[in-house]
Amino acid sequence: MHFEFFPSRTLTIYLARLFFTRILAVLLMLTLVLQMLDLLGESGKILAYPGNGQGQLLTYVSLRVPQLIARFLPYSVLLATIITLATLNQNSEVISMKAAGLSAHQILAPLIATALAIAAVSFMFNERVVTRATAALNAWSAVDYGPVPRTAGARTNVYLAEGRDILLAGAVNGSGEATVMDQVTYYRRDENGMIVEQLRAPRATYAGPGWRLEQPTRFDARAVATNTLPSAVVAKGISLARVAISGVDADAQDLLTLSRSIDALKVAGRRTSELEAAWWHKISGPLSAALMPLLGAVAAFGLARSGQLLIRAVIGMALGFAYFVFDNAALALGNFGGYPPFIAAWAPFLLFALIGETVLVRTEE
After folding, report:
1. Which of 141, 172, 180, 200 pairs with 28 at a CA distance of 20 to 30 A?
2. Transmembrane residues, as ranges (predicted)?
């Protein structure tokens, strides 16, 4: 019996390379198929804007692909685990390794190490690429795929109230006095809450105080009349600080930026449990890839000729997909305040790590 955690160097490299190539193959397949389906649904909206063509479709693909990779990488690791272990089992390689004195944990060790490395790369990819792509895509879709807006600090669908009046912005870019709003709508209401005036403008800049709408279209609800103004300054009570903490999208911010946003919201007395859960999930989410070999390990063992290989593969797949269901449910409960943010992000990971380890020990060790 070998007591080292890893098997021999040759066997470790063999298993890691086999597992890694299957992860890449499954991820490539999923990304291509899902990108084609997604592009079919969005191409009509993109091409509906005058002047958009093939270039804009390629821009959409370049922004959407990183999101698909980040979302479906854990699924790819799960499916690659099932494929790799089932193939090893069917070819009697698992039996040979166990006959050589290797335990189930030693057989899985190269796969778990590979998954940990992929989880680390996934975390860096999410922080450096996915957040920027998400911010850019959200800002672009908020202006109905018109001219691509600046993406630094972009936020979408910003809602701001000034007493009874409301200011809506499809996208907010920049920071400080250089803040710019796109697709702006301002509603002025009377003491009964009825809208008496509406102004729509493609752009608004900070007027210090207030926000200057550029060539707004004004609708007077009382006179039922519409006219275009050269400019108009509205919402003088809405400061730059309020705009800075509004419309925080956790998916479009990295850990450091999101931490600053959470601190600013806490100072303003705003609820931050949803953002805090998202902050923790930025760590636990990529790390879930390292959990997949353990959950899919049931497919590696048992005699292939017993006719139970398919059942074992289905059980491993069911455990993996059950994790994703519980993970989403825990985040939803955390958003509603049912779980503390840390528990909402980490409880499914720890629970299924214990389940996978228990199944492995009880059945194979």
Report:
1. 141
2. 12-37, 68-86, 107-125, 283-302, 309-326, 338-361
